[in-house]
Amino acid sequence: MNFIEILKVIFLGIVEGITEWLPISSTGHMLLVDEFLHMNMSDAFKDMFFVVIQLGAILAVVVMFWKRMFPFQFHDKAKPVVRKDIFSLWFKVVVACIPGAIVTILFDDYIEAHLHTPVVIAAMLILYGIAFILIEDWNKTRTARVTRLSDITYQTALAIGMFQVLSIIPGTSRSGATIIGALLIGVSRVAAAEFTFFLAVPVMFGLSALKMLKFGFHFTGAEFMTLILGMVVAFVVSVLVIKFLMSYIKKHDFKVFGWYRIILGVIVLAVFLL
User: How many domains does the chain fold into?
Assistant: First the structure.
């Protein structure tokens, strides 16, 4: 792997780390960047790489939220304390994952073959950008009924999971779809973002495992280094982005991301259609 290819992988890792957690579509950005960078890798490896690189971003969440995600706590030599509330939250996450898992298994190949296009990505960027703006304007007249993770019920988790199904279309954004769904049903911005973090862990591990199985585990040395480098960069950048996002949404809404999506979508349409 030459120096130019290394720089390309680092850039992709930065893009992944930023866009995985902001509701602006990481997959959409990765596919669009690839249109201009022209990575020197096989189509099969690229398809797997663009998904598995997200594990770096997911590991950032696991590290940062470890105490809130791990249900066993150890205190010196005492027996571990079992956090039933954390177990309960993970069961709700599993419920939220079911709709997306079913749809992905059934339609993933079709989506990849027919919808991974700049026009579809641009359309979804614009559509959900408008949705963010409209929903945030609507929320000005409402009070969130769910303000903490512990207040999320199984019914609420399933409803959020139904919205997550929409993210199988590139350009939608997994975090964007779940946050929009959560806001619509009365979940606060902070609780919506935090539940999205939890939901991302099993979803991305599952998608990565699926892609790895489809690709196989026969990496060349260059492919292995490409994957590791991308994940490491995505991990570091994700830590910074998650800290920024959690601080930002305590005082601001998501409308700025909606406007960003619309502007980017228009630019993409102009570039690829004109």
Answer: 1
Name the token pair of 24: 């602006």
Cα gap 88→145, rounded to integer Å: 19
What tokens appear for 28 in the block?
Answer: 């959409």
Q: What is the pLDDT along the chain (274 residues), one digit of tens a residue?
A: 788 899 999 999 999 999 999 999 887 788 788 878 888 888 888 888 988 898 999 999 999 999 889 888 776 666 788 889 999 999 999 999 999 989 988 988 888 888 888 899 999 999 999 999 999 999 988 899 999 999 999 999 999 999 999 998 989 998 999 999 999 999 999 999 999 999 999 988 888 888 888 888 788 888 899 999 999 999 999 999 999 999 999 999 999 999 999 999 998 888 888 7
Angle subtended at Cα 131 by Cα 126 and Cα 134, rounded to the nearest 5 degrees? 125
Which residues form the domain of 161?
Answer: 3-273
Give Cα 22 distance to the centre of its chain.
8
In angstroms, the CA 211 to CA 195 distance is 24
Which three-class secondary structure string do you get for the chain? CCHHHHHHHHHHHHHHHHHCCCCCCHHHHHHHHHHHHCCCCCHHHHHHHHHHCHHHHHHHHHHHCHHHHCCEECCCCCCCEECHHHHHHHHHHHHHHHHHHHHHHHHHHHHHHHCCCHHHHHHHHHHHHHHHHHHHHHHCCCCCCECCHHHCCHHHHHHHHHHHHHHHCCCCCHHHHHHHHHHHCCECHHHHHHHHHHHHHHHHHHHHHHHHHHHCCCCCHHHHHHHHHHHHHHHHHHHHHHHHHHHHCCCCCCHHHHHHHHHHHHHHHHHHHC
> 187 has which bridge partners?
146
